[in-house]
Amino acid sequence: MTIVTTMVKxxxxxxxxxxxxxxxIFDPTTCKKLSRVIVNVTGxxxxxxxxxxxxxxxxxxxxxAFAFGVVCYLILPFxxxxxxxxxxxxxxxxxxxxxxxxxxxxSFMGFPVVQALLGExxxxxTSIIHFGFNIMFYALGLALVRRDACADSxxxxxxxxxFNAGTIAAILVMVIFFGHFTIPEVIVEPxxxxxxxxxxxxxxxxxxxxxxYRMAEVFADKxxxxxxxxxxLIVPLLVYVVCVSCSLDGYLTKVATITFGMxxxxxxxxxxxxxxxxxxxxxVSVAFTTIFSLISIPLWAIMLGI
Length: 306
Known about the structure:
- By secondary structure, this protein is mainly alpha-helical.
- The chain contains 15 helices and no strands.
- It has one domain: Na+/H+ antiporter like fold.
- Helix 4 runs antiparallel to helix 7 (about 135-150) and helix 6 (about 120-130) crosses helix 13.
């Protein structure tokens, strides 16, 4: 019943966000501001708090998780390119489709799901496995979108854009873990309290963002159905096969498979929004895969024996 309870809870928060979005209580401006709160405050707090649940965790497992994540993020762009070619998408959308395969919603939706299904330690391993997420988005993702749109905005890649709160939190948990530092309870408790806001806020914002699109428009693009199968089923299946082939332990296999099976990351919609054609694909892909993830996530949880 854990997976049923979890998905009902997540769906209820998303539905509430959808209603608040339709009523313009959670308007686009509010959603953007709350998204920044999650990305820069509650999410990092949740990640930092997760390191307290790693007592007795083998450092070798952490290094394996980190290396596995790096390899995945190096391979996924090529898989995304192959997918775009097989789907025969327009030349000016190839980069956008690469992003939909490369970047999964491992924080906004991944954190709440793995926390509910696999416990606090899963958040720690999620942050380690997906350490390359921000690097790939800022170093590769934005360049691909600008190339798609033939945009010459003069905007240049800046190294500091990689080091946002999420990346810094991931670095800190590794320093704390490998340095065998102990975080005082007077710090852990506030972090846990603030971090607990991540799950309800994330799901409500996802729902509110979906309220901006007409459902008829979301379901009209037939390529989105193929994308949903690729993003929600084939990518996690490939990750699972690699995990088993490399003899990763059961827990890491579950964390990696579940998180790489998340819907398209909200950052894809944000990164493509300045460009009309790419922005529409980015926004619809996030909404479409998020809806169908309510089916795929329970399926993966059942198949993984969670």
